[in-house]
């Protein structure tokens, strides 16, 4: 199982801002997943082309199982992660973004500005997480129960989770 965490930030990619989101996601994964996996982190600048090209490379060349992006999902002019995602995806899974926004609205009214989405390209699942570290765990806790089964359905690697952290849904039969 190969997971890649992609931080999308002009400032972090230039070293102006410390990437807090990528390490937080990696720590969460290490706590939640009990089966063998490796995780790679990348930091890229905002923008349509950089996000699109990175995602295509990860899916088509590196053939990773799961890509978790963070950042670039707001309404600012350089926030083009969802547009780049839609150019890459074969199947969009709108429920991921809907759930992340719904759960985030319990904490902040500005969650309505978020444009996270998810979907598949080949046997890779890609999910856009928020860029704010405070929202990342909340969103991972909300959507991760469906991720192992989704990975199974698309023919990606299998993962097991610690039921004390995240109880994954697996249908019987």
From TrEMBL:
This is Molybdopterin adenylyltransferase. GO terms for biological process: Mo-molybdopterin cofactor biosynthetic process. The keyword ATP-binding applies. Belongs to the MoaB/Mog family. Pathway: Cofactor biosynthesis; molybdopterin biosynthesis. Its EC number is 2.7.7.75. It holds the Pfam family MoCF_biosynth. It comes from the Bacteria. It catalyses: molybdopterin + ATP + H(+) = adenylyl-molybdopterin + diphosphate. GO terms for molecular function: ATP binding; molybdopterin adenylyltransferase activity. NCBIfam families: molyb_syn, PRK09417.1. Residues 4-150 form the MoaB/Mog domain.
